[in-house]
Amino acid sequence: MESNSLDDHYLCTDIERMERIALQVPLSKIRRPEWDVKTLREAGLLGIHTDTEIWKTVWSEEERLNYQSTPMFMVTGVKPDHFLNLPVVEGEKTEGFLEIGDGEFTLPATIIRGKNPGKTVLVTAGLHAGEYVGIQTLIELSKKLNPEKVNGQLVLVKVLNRQDFEKRAGSISWEDGKNLNRVFPGKKDGTRMERLAAAITESLIKKADYYIDLHSGDGFEQLHPYVYYVGVVDEKTAEKSLHMARHIGVKYVVRSTTATGGAYNYASSLGIPSILIERGGHSYWTWEEVEQDKRDVRHLVFHLQGKKCHGLKHYRQMLLENVVYEYAPYTGCWYPSKKPGEYFFKGEELGELKDYYGNLLYTSIATENGVVLYQTASLNIIEDGPMIAYAAITETLT
Fold first, then answer.
1. Contact 304, 211 (CB under 8 A)
2. Segments in the chain forming alpha helices (H)
3. How does pLDDT run across 119-150, given as a tens digit for each residue?
4. Nearest 5°: CA angle at 253, between 222 and 143?
């Protein structure tokens, strides 16, 4: 100290007495900053960071020489905002169960809030409990996406119909026999699926600037990958939704003419640009399908939030309209003549419905030129249940 003409702050100090006093102070026996981090977390703070080298920056040479045996550290934390019941902080990722419908429903979710302002993008899966490609996609994305890559807020809800998922149910709820994606905007005092739809609408959809819903074929369905957007809403919302669909790596874009019933349909009617992606089927999933969904969602989210994304492009696609959803007129056995993605001409046979003795009950005949989107793949078919869906190709999008 003397050689550097610096003051000794401990000159004339009773060091031994000072040490005895220090040993009586509770914090002297606690390891820090570990204790500080734990305490701040228990107090509900997020985004906690420590800097054990800050003393080298803020102390003068004299202070460093005097106090180097007890160096200064810095701990910072942020009092969180909340998305529903989950705490969120800029630049952080939060995982947990979102509580909606006054706590009746708890849904596994990841909220990622970037440091820079931007739009809120809602991405959901598991609206139909047996459609697994989207569910695994969001499980993967919630691990891979970092807040540094997000502008605004990204809300990933992995399983909307969690109770049915945990009972291995399909598109029809085991409790009330309703298809969740046919009852939006729902009813607060309705059946379970109607209450769930109402809760999703109020707590999730209405908080979003953009909405992406991930689906695949049910256990009895096979399909060719495609994407829906709603074309019967206001022009601005329809254009933005079509723009979203153009960034999805599928061959077919289907223009829906329904503005209620489905989650993305109703969201579009509220002025929220929305799409529904279909990929996979048979209540089965593959890593290849998950990777394709991940690519599409990641690229589109970054684009919507104003981030540069390598690999983002408009795909050469075909616009499909005049969708025909044909339902079985009888219960029996179904024998399709075409495969999903296969083209046909007006008047061609699409499949036959027979009874248990092989007698013909009904023949499905194409009412126009088009392509098969999805169809029942199981042998059994139920009266008034889905049989085949196809649409006319009206335009090539480039």
1. no
2. 15-24, 34-42, 55-58, 61-67, 132-144, 162-165, 192-203, 235-246, 263-269, 287-304
3. 999 999 999 999 999 999 999 999 999 999 89
4. 70
Q: What is the CA radius of gyration of the chain?
A: 29
Using a 10 angstrom Cβ sphere, with 0-12 exposed, 13-18 middle and 19 or more buried, the burial of residue 308 is exposed
One-letter amino acid for residue 387 of the chain: M
Residue 102 DSSP class: T
Question: What are 147-198's pLDDT values in tens digits?
Answer: 998 999 999 999 999 999 999 999 999 999 999 999 999 999 999 999 999 9
156 vs 154: CA distance, rounded Å:
6
- pTM comes to 0.83
Sign of CA dihedral 390, 395, 397, 398: positive
Distance CA 187, CA 168 (A): 25
Determine the Cα–Cα distance for residues 58 and 363; give it in Å rounded to an integer: 83
